[in-house]
What we know:
The complex is a heterodimer of chains A (289) and B (797). Chain A is α+β, with helices and mostly antiparallel strands. Chain A contains twelve helices and 14 strands. Chain A has three domains: 7-53, Uridine Diphospho-n-acetylenolpyruvylglucosamine Reductase, domain 2 (2-Layer Sandwich); 58-173, Uridine Diphospho-n-acetylenolpyruvylglucosamine Reductase, domain 3; 180-281, Enolase-like, domain 1 (2-Layer Sandwich). Chain A has a five-stranded antiparallel beta sheet with strand order 4-5-10-6-7, sandwiched between helices. Chain A has a four-stranded antiparallel beta sheet with strand order 11-12-13-14, with helices on both faces. In chain B, helix 9 (344-352) runs parallel beside helix 10 (384-402), helix 12 (435-446) crosses helix 13 (448-460) and helix 17 crosses helix 18. Chain B has 19 helices and 30 strands. The mean pLDDT of chain B is 96. Chain A binds chain B through residues 1-5, 43-44, 186, 188-193, 195, 259, 261-262, 264-265, 268-269, 272, 288-289, and chain B through 131-133, 136-137, 140, 293-295, 461-462, 464, 661-666, 704, 708, 716-717, 719, 721-722, 724, 727, 729-730, 786-788, 791, 796-797.
Amino acid sequence: MKAAAFNYARAASVDEAVQMLVRGGGGAKLLAGGQSLLPALNLRLMSLDLLVDITGIAALRGIRVEGGTLKIGAMTRHADLLTSPEIAAHAPLLAKAIAHVAHPAIRNRGTIGGNLAHADPASELPACMLALGATLVIQGPSGQRRVQAADFFLGLYQTALAPDEILIAIELPALASGERAFFHEYARRMGDYAIVGLAAQGKPAGDRIDALRLVYFGVGERAGSCPAAARILQQRHSPAILAEAQAALAADLQPQNDHQASAAMRLHLARTLLARCVNELLGRAEASA
Amino acid sequence: MTDAPTTRPGLSELDRPNSYIGRAVPRPNLKRLMQGRGQYVSDMSLPRMAHVVFLRSPYAHARILGIDSAEAAAMPGVIAIVTGPELAKVCTPWVGVLSHLKGLKSAPQYPIAVDRACWQGEAVAAIVATSRAAAEDAAERVMVDYEELEPVADMRTALDAATPVIHPELGDNLAFERNLDAGAVDAAFAEADHVVEAEFVFGRHTGVTLEPRSILADWNPGDERLTVYQGTQAPHMMQNIFAKHLALDESQVRVVCKDVGGSFGIKVHVYADDMATAALSKLLRRPVKFVADRLESFNTDIHARDHRCKGRAAVKADGTITAFEIDDLTGIGPYSVYPRTSAIEANQVVNLVGGPYTTPNYRARARVVFQNKNVTCQYRAVGHPIACSVTEGLVDLAAAAIGMDPADIRRRNLIADDAYPCASPSGLRFEALSHHAALDKLLAMMDYSALRAEQAALRAKGIHRGIGLASFIEVTNPSPAFYGVGGARISSQDGVAVRMDATGAIICQTSITEQGQGSEALTAQIVASMLGVPMSRVRVTLGDTDNTPYGGGTWASRGAGIGGEAALQAGKQLRRNILAAAASILQADPDTLDIRDGKIIDAATGAERVPLEELARIVYYRPDTLPPGFQAEMMAVRHFVPRDFPFAFTNGIQASWLEVDTETGFITLLNHWVVEDCGTIINPQLVDEQIRGGVVQGLGAALFEHCRYDERGQLTNATMADYLVPMAAEMPDIDVGHIVSPTKDGELGAKGAGEAGTAGAAACVANAVNDALSPFGARITEIPLTPELILTALGRI
């Protein structure tokens, strides 16, 4: 388990890193937290010509609030997100989700940008980006561009990033008055990749939930929004409405069979999560089995 | 038999200044290991050392048509690329059979596959280079031409006529079969009020040591000696085997085993990789090192379990269980592992089913079949979890059939505490067990009736919790009955040498080994106690065939009981020798002298007569002042092997309290209790750690650990992300209690404690899950108990 030899370069700025990526062609990769990339290299599941280390670029770190927007540098570590008062106040969904990301040693090195650029379908963070309506700020040879989260995650480990582009920041609309967040996942052990997880945010209004965004992860090739179920839950809550929304998940999700769980089990757990989510957002006691 | 005292009122004979037996003193090696100053083979480096990487078969079963290594051989840093036929000229093959396992057969196994790979992960070529990375680079360029063959992947069809025979010269895929019929089984079933039955399924899993298997072999052509630094549990066994297969005398082989990062039975076997590494060192005349990476560990460390066992029990309406019957099937991979064999686990299952109970009628069949998967062999608590899960699962089924409480049916059938010595229907001889005392203590520790009331109250609220019990017996302190009688050159005796040097320091060499159990600590505790010196004055050497007495090592829960007794006897003899020298110098009767806190004292008054350092000075530098004809012997050696019983059985009982989320199938372990009886407890903290560690490995098997093979014999989850080891967050508190029934086979009275936790943990978890699910009429007899299994049993998916 030794990585094949590769070249290594440390970038002092985003511009320099982009130039390195351009020169590296398709054979260059960025080193952010290294928590997925380095194991893949060591297992020789991938090889590369050039590793561009961007861990020293201070401008890529940090969390700040500007107006109603939360701006997070792409190289901000999970551990920093977990303890950030700004995240806790303005993006409680993200704060809840980060606690489920692996273990402290991994959270101390892993970064939000690295995670999103990796686009692991079982990861918590892409789902949060979709649920929060995030904007991803990308820099490439021809300058900066902004991409909505819904247009960023394209498939299994696939994003809208070109090989010579860097995800530099994430912008999240701050939690609006009356909005509530729900996050939960089912994993065999604490810190494991989830079998199924749900990131949701919406505005409870009496016994309805307005503006609900439901995003599942661990199900299918990428984090999956469930607009049909969310629409149904805009109606007044009743067991029949919940059941209808749970049934609608079958159309929104494409659960896979793997050694963690069968597709049937994933769909069952997704439905269980939905009931839990609705009860929590509406402030109802957890429905008993 | 006594309850282990939790508080010690007044003083006992153990309260002398240097009595360490029964005390939770810290292990002497703790500081070194905690400071990162351990000496692990994986960290070692020697001048001119080369690294070997094995190219491994991607197929479960394939013929090797050709290997083209020309391009790889020209890569930077490559020293040699060696194939199976080339290495077979240096190292002879082996066959893993033992004569007392009648009918056991296996095929010759080579260090590197010669013309056929029989499991995914079997080595087909060795790449030796100046670094591991260079060897891995070259391995990618070695081209092997394979013809894929049909694999035998399902043990249930391994014996079918339509299934290919893995080793045609053996005739079939049946490695071993044992049948046992004791008492009147058919009559017992005919006369039963209820007959219960189930098929119990046990997944394959493995040991997952923190430090992988590591070996550094150094053939020195000048000395004509092979020095092997290896993380092994049995240095003398390995010395014999390296010599035998590399055409050397045993005296030409030295095996050195310093710190080892975990073993659990994984490191007591002969691996093709290790033999190849030693052979390569001899072939290339330089040190060669192999450290398995994690992927290789999953593909080549022995696996264990993988049983399907049908069981039946006959029960009377009053709760008396009158018969057990089992039919066990296990798949062991393509070879029986050398030299301990892969038939021992099934053999143990036959021996141990029904072991805690008075049930007189017992019939068993066990079949061991070959398959194209990684080999299985002895892992912590060999056979015990299977026998215990089958027995205890059937006992709970019997209790349910007659409407009896699980604790009551055990009380009715457990062997009475005053019934010893006695024997089981399978012929196991029990010296002194304490099932009823253990059951009573366990029920008190867990407050059984209050827990049952809590369970009922919660069930009414839709919260489903379960209580599971599992009594067990454990094989410890094995005599030659385990391996020696079958012709294996595996010593069942151990030796300890103790000497006092010229400053009064105590140097001790023992043939048992340390992989974290506390062998070094218990040896120092016993020797210091026997001599009457502070423990800090005792230094213990282990794991070096040149520098320790000859012995078996550490496996089968034998270190404390056998090595500890040898230490006790050696310490006693050196004490006699020291007192004889002191008596001679002091012109006193040795019986009037004693050693306390490193000083010769007057036994009656406690008055100090002479410190040991002064005695040592006289003995070593001024022997001319000793009386004529007196020769001081400041070294004593003693060996020990149990003679009265083939095994020192221990017993115990475990309980699990858990909650099943019937919506998700997830299990939350809430508490775990163990009461065990390992006889004399040398170090309570080490014993409790052994029990807890063993329980955790048993809980891993119950809920998480599983080597998952597909229908082509491919291991699909060979990473730490996909193979789920038990982790702290999911583990419950584990409360440990003790009953103490010392063995009289030896003076120390200690039996083994290393495997008791693993023996019963999965059984009581499975019983607890089924207890929780009882309102739903669902019952699961398969481990690991995944959420998917539970949801399926509940009909939710």
